[in-house]
Design brief:
about 230 residues, alpha+beta, five-stranded mixed β-sheet, 5 helices
Length: about 230
């Protein structure tokens, strides 16, 4: 009996309706930023115990549809954040309220204490409902060059004009002017995600939520784990 209890505690199953993306589509690249140091907090965020993408089952299946379309073109999706525990959102809010000057990489024109008021950090997040994903596109068979831009500059994605989590107006999906290739890449990602049933957050080209999400009014707080 004790052995069974220990096994059950270790297994730590996900809540009903959630899956690990790798179990649905292991071909989608994962670069989960809040489980490491390469994010705007420059540290691990509460609730991220592993660099793993967890989503609701419908969101993961829809994302796999997008991936199949991408791979047909020699491309691949790369996800930066998926389900985000409520405790992680609270951690970001606490960090923001500590204040500080602008950061030339992540929020070059806004002081840290103004990130909430400016709408770059939310006191609640759709990510905690499990059907929101932050992502970009990379070349399938080779590494794209690093782009000198605000946000996650080392993600080796196609050029989208900014990196993931650049808290600046240049990250708005329809921002102009942008280099022609960056505009084309944003349009390509937007079209592919819309075709699979996702809607975009207009202030962040990388942020998409499944339109028909299964938990539209519920937020979760279980940790992000590998198993």
């Amino acid at each position: 009996m004790a052995l069974l209890a220990a096994f059950s505690a270790h297994a730590d199953p996900l809540p009903a309706g959630f899956v690990r993306l790798a179990d649905v589509d292991p071909t989608i690249r994962q670069d989960i930023r809040y489980a490491g140091l390469g994010n705007f907090l420059q540290r691990e965020v509460d609730g991220y115990e592993a660099p793993v993408c967890i989503l609701t089952a419908p969101a993961a299946k829809a994302l796999s549809v997008v991936q199949k379309a991408m791979t047909a073109e020699g491309l691949t999706l790369i996800v930066f954040d998926c389900y985000r525990p409520a405790r992680a959102v609270a951690d970001m809010v606490r960090w923001t309220r500590q204040g500080g000057p602008p950061d030339p990489q992540w929020y070059p024109k806004v002081e840290r204490g103004d990130l909430i008021a400016e709408g770059y950090v939310g006191e609640l997040s759709s990510h905690s409902r499990g059907s929101t994903v932050d992502l970009a596109v990379a070349e399938l068979d080779k590494t794209s060059p690093a782009h000198s831009a605000c946000g996650a500059t080392d993600a080796r994605t196609l050029d989208f004009g900014t990196g993931f989590d650049c808290f600046d107006s240049a990250s708005e999906t329809a921002h102009r002017p942008l280099p022609l290739q960056a505009t084309a890449n944003r349009t390509m990602l937007l079209s592919a995600m819309r075709a699979a049933g996702f809607r975009n957050y207009a202030r962040e080209w990388w942020h998409f939520t499944l339109a028909d999400e299964p938990f539209p009014k519920q937020r979760f707080d279980f940790p992000v784990t590998a198993d």
